[in-house]
Amino acid sequence: MIETLSYTLLFISLAILLVFTCLYAYEQYKHSSLLSNIFATQDDTIISDNFSAKKAEFKLKLQRAGLERKQFNEIIFASVLAGISLISLIFIMQFSFLNELLLFALGVAIAILMPYLYLEEQIKARIKRIDNDLPIFIDLLIIILEGGGGLNNAIDKVTTEGASVLGPDLLSESKKFKNEFITYSSDVAFTNLVNRTGSDAIATIVGFMRLSEETGIGVKSIFENQAQELKSMEMLNIEKKAATMNIGITLVMFLFILPAVIAMIAFPLAANALMPGF
């Protein structure tokens, strides 16, 4: 009975793999030109309205994660391989039916869900890196603006010479924004910057920059206020981490240090109670 179920699970897994492979090959053949346009790297500043909502959303996710299509395909291949390897343990080792079913479900979940979970984690990590570099980036812009330079000149100067103090993610977005700001309208440049990064801090700054264009308020004062607010938020996060650190230290003490101390006291007492003659 168990061998029959094992062969059934093997047949189901192979059938699922074959179906996904055929569908992937068919989609690659049918939409090869469309996919190449969706993931084009020559001109990815403007998202075309001809793309469907799902394809446009997926492209935005790739941009926010800082990944290319080739890299995402490699992640899919690695996930499928890991899922098949986990499922193959069912036929190599002896497990109960429940454990075999759990391994099969876990292998399928890894093969299907892991690429998208990895994509979401990369998006969060990239947004965090951009937010961490943003106060320094704004401070450098303020210094150049105070020296009499314009916004375009300040962005260009920081982008070309700020690699030693800024990460590549924010510098890349700054370069794209500068090119779009010159080539297209400011509204398009602002919208694409917010969509590509997905950062709430950048969205707030862009909102104030739009207001600056409409009201004529200098961007220097806006950058100064935003830089101060970002630094205050960063300090608040540090204080939160410091406040919760005591809880973590206490938990570590209860889990690791306190049991060792109790064992050092209790074991000798127990030994004397069991062997009073020694």
Q: Supply the number of helical segments.
A: 10
Give the topology string: H per helix, E per strand: HHHHHHHHHH
Largest sheet report? none
- What is the CA-CA span between the terminal residues? 59 Å
Global outline: flat
Strand elements, count = 0
How much helical structure, as a percent, in the residues? Answer: over 70%
The share of residues in extended strands comes to: under 5%
Structural class: mainly alpha
| Mean pLDDT score | 75
Work out the radius of gyration.
28 Å
Low-pLDDT runs = 29-50
Structure characterization notes:
Helix content is 84%, strand content 0%. With 278 residues, the protein is an all-alpha fold. It has 2 domains: 2-126, no CATH class; 129-233, Receptor-associated Protein (Up-down Bundle). The longest helix has 56 residues, at 219-274.
List keywords for this structure.
84% helix; 278 residues; 2 domains; Receptor-associated Protein; mainly alpha
List the helices and strands and how they pair.
Layout: H1 2-30, H2 32-38, H3 53-65, H4 69-92, H5 97-146, H6 151-161, H7 168-183, H8 186-197, H9 200-215, H10 219-274
